[in-house]
Predict the structure.
Amino acid sequence: DEWHESDTATHATRARHSRAMHPKRARASSSSSDATLGAGLVPLVNKLQDIFASDAMSGKRLVDLPCIAVVGSQSSGKSSVLEALVGRDFLPRGPDICTRRPLLLQLVHTPAARDGPTEWGEFLHRPGDMFTDFEAIREEIEAETDRTTGVNKGVSDKQIRLKICSPNVLTMTLVDLPGITRVPVGDQPPDIETQIRNMILSYIKKDSCLILAVTPANSDLANSDALTLSKQVDPDGLRTLGVVTKLDIMDRGTSAVKYLKGEVVPLRLGYVGVVNRCQADINDRRPMHEARALEAEFFRSKPEYKDVLKHCGIKALSRNVSDLLAKHIGNLLPDLQARIMDRRAEAEKELAMYGSDIPETESERAALVLQKLERYAASLQAAVEGRSTNLSIDILEGGARVHYVLQEIFVKGLLELDPTATMTDEHIRTKIQNTAGTKAVLLVPEEPFEQLARQCIEKMLDPCKQCAELVHQELCAMASSCVPPEVAQVYPHLAQAVEKTCKEFLSKGLEPAVQMIVNLVECQLAHINTSHPDFVGGPAALLQAQKAIDARMNAEAEEAAEAANKSSKNKGVNKENADVVSGTIQKTSQWLSGVLSPSKRHYSIENGTVKLKEPPKKLNANACETNEEFLQVMVTRTLLGSYYRIARGILADTVPKAVMHFLVNSVSRGLRQHLIGVLYQPGIMKNLLMEDPEIAELRQEARARVKALNAAALTMTEFSSELRV
């Protein structure tokens, strides 16, 4: 700790430092009656504050440490109260706002020394410099404030940390916050009141912070700015100690007894009344001990304060504050240690994510690049094969998605595809007549069957190619997700190059996979294998078609017989039977008109001669007029359905195999070699490992946090060990 390792400190000063920071040993070697309850706990928190307030931490609050925040309006007497607790003049004074930055004041009780200074102060921003002149402390506070806020009354939330060691103080830690003001002065922004209130609330809203609410006695306590703010964050008054100042300038005949008894604004911790030095005393540099004697005389001379005398005076305030803080720290200590451990684990995890610093030598850079490439290739292969760690239990991921695409999307989708189902008898009849050309159709034609089979097979080409493309997309998504977040954050150029190179490799695997799929479909188109053992064959198809015709004829015969039976039973033709007969006649007439209607004949008979007509531009095939024609259509449909199912089953089996071989399994066969061949090149490694300057800064901050939290954890462990001893 820079505060405790100054090269310029004398041996005696170091001894006093040791007594200040190790109060247990100090109490063992000193019989001073000023040892307090907080002499052990408060210095522990002070040391933690010093650790977390180092320059490397940049003012970040890693852990909310217990403290007491001094809150009050401008000119409420806050500075006088703090100086009275210290017993020395050391704070800036003036008619305008004086406290413009939070001042963290660590008071450490140290035994009086026989040689050397008995009182001194140290600033964290000036480690090793001891201030024995308290006027110099005031000047340094003003100078450090101006260095951050400027000289024209600006404010800042950046802390100034001051430690004062003295035998005349009780051990405690206070934060003096800027006084609440309403009217901007100097170069203060118009919303200065809001800024100061937000700054105060940022401290006192935390449960680890006790509140010292300072209010002058000559104002209305119910409208106190300090109590109003404390009520916002501590409505039950569990963390708020009220301080009533300027009791000596209240109107004659009035007193603050009701204030101190908590009858106006109740607080669980109560109130303490004090008498500050007047401005004339401050200007005349009246010693503090004289001011305390005058304060004691004031309370003795006022019989109305007799019942609350133990709550009056700076000594009562000092003892009360020290005891409250020590008890507060004791209550928070177990949780504080747990929070330090949690923050350290988070910081270590973040530091691990940022990785180590960029290697300086070419060989170290090469080793790092090779390590990242091999880990990436292994990670992607594990994802494809389902060997990744921390696999989800909620959703499918990795290779399971590829399997889902192949089986659940492609195979089931292909099995649902049946072009023959949407093919009508008219379509088949048209194909039969077209393939016959100028000849008449004899028996069962083979050519229309093969052409129709090829048309159906061609419709499977697009979904087969889409299968490969979907798997390629899944692999590309895995290629992106397998880039470790720490590599993407620390080495963005390397991450982008690895992902790009991997996707190029996968694209090269997609090309032969698609070409193989095209070849598989073309193989099916090249030869219609009617000798396949699962093919229904011509004789079986004829038999099935004949059965269909027989069933159709039987159905028509049964329908006619049923109509005749109904007619004979009624012994006459009633209206209902007349409708049936009429319907039958109408259907027969429609069939005959379809064959013999002059509107569908392309000739006419005029004057005993035949006149031929030109065929229309769109000429449809004749409907099935005979059982033979119907038999041709039925046989062709049966053969087509049988062969299409065979070809579909073959493609449903071979296409996923082609995708797996040429695309998916290529990850394990050649991705690692491809990455190394493209990216493991001496000329590009330095650029690949070039990191964002912001990442380097974040790494340094994370390293500083880990160091600070390690020191804090060690401090807590040492303190626990001392307690056990």
Summary: The first strand starts at residue 67 and ends at 72. Residues 1-38, 580-599 have pLDDT under 50 and may be disordered.
